[in-house]
Design goal:
2% of the residues lie in helices and 42% in strands. With 177 residues, it is mostly beta strands. The longest helix has 4 residues. The chain is globular, with a radius of gyration of 16 Å. The N and C termini lie far apart (34 Å).
């Protein structure tokens, strides 16, 4: 389960994750609370925030405390990574007895693309042939041969009015054509 809310900090939103803990694959080995490249190869929950002109933010969280934040856009059908390994406040806690984990992140508003209005979320776990991909808004069954969470056409409209102030603008994104 993913919950988004306004945080006590006016410059960010809080994202809370509660999910089953599979520990497969295991701990990627990076320092908890720090960015970890290729985190998508491990057990993660991912959230995508899509704005105008196919600009979007991808955030990934691991039960072991690592995260990765990517700013991306699509130009002429080509996906481009704009920025990676952006800093983020994230803490995770594993409950081995219940086989669950919880994570809390503060996502700076500055990271969200202009006019954010669509969303999708995913969970990945398992190794090799046991690899599982789950989506909040999945692609139709049999539509695609391989998983690709960057298929923006499957993202759904979400009302961000309660989360984002009317005056919200990102200087980071204003630099991106």
């Amino acid at each position: 389960m993913i919950t988004l809310s306004r945080s006590g900090n006016a410059d960010s939103i809080t994202m809370e994750v509660t999910a089953p803990f599979f520990n497969d694959p295991g701990n990627p080995g990076g320092e908890p609370g720090k960015p970890f490249w290729e985190l998508w190869e491990y057990e993660v929950v991912e959230a995508f925030f899509l704005g105008e002109n196919d600009k979007y933010l991808e955030v990934e969280f691991c039960p072991h405390g690592q995260h990765i934040v990517l700013m991306l856009n699509v130009v002429n059908g080509v996906r481009n990574t704009i920025k990676t390994k952006l800093p983020l406040e994230f803490k995770a806690k594993i409950n081995a007895e219940d086989k669950t984990w919880q994570g809390v992140a503060e996502i700076p508003l500055e990271y969200l693309p202009p006019k954010t209005n669509r969303f999708n979320a995913y969970a990945i776990h398992g190794s090799d042939k046991k690899r599982q991909y789950e989506a909040l808004f999945p692609a139709p069954s049999g539509e695609h041969e391989n998983p690709d969470f960057h298929r923006l056409q499957y993202f759904k409209t979400v009302d961000y009015n309660v989360l984002l102030p009317d005056t919200y603008q990102s200087k980071l994104w204003s630099e991106v054509e």
